[in-house]
Amino acid sequence: MTSGLILLGICLVTLIYGISLYNYLVSLKHAVSKAWANIDVLLKQRHDELPKLVEVCKQYKQFEQETLQRVIEARSQVQSAREGQDIAALGKAEGMLRMGLGNIFAVAEAYPELKTNENFMQLQNRITGLENGIADRRELYNESVNIYNVGIEQFPAVLIANLFAYQPKPLLEFAAAEKTDVNLKSLFS
Question: Are 129 and 158 in contact (CB under 8 A)?
Fold first, then answer.
């Protein structure tokens, strides 16, 4: 009788512990989703601002059309990757877009009328703010992903993670832009 109660107690404690581990993994998964949603909002906002920037630049006939075309293409790739939630493709496309934006603002230095255009300055400030927000949110996303990935690999949580097919999530890296000499923050100021 006593051994039956002890065994029942052990099973009950194990069940409660398993449920708490499962709930912990669910909260980690949702933290990653929330962090991604925060990035997604800023990417959408920037996506909406870029055509306005390109249009303002196009008003200056001599402005380098190739630079503008690269930004338009990169914007399209970012949108595609964002909609598909393809983190690796998004990182690559973001690198191209950041390089293109850096080129636009570098080339704008040669056009004093453009640099003093009120719309251009407002868009430049708006995009700078969005870029800073994306960088902050990316850091939060990567931290959430790291906690999640560690959580699903630790014992005994790995048993529950494997049982419910939890898969590691990729970090969001903008490697191409970070390795270039283009520093958007200095160009935007």
Answer: no
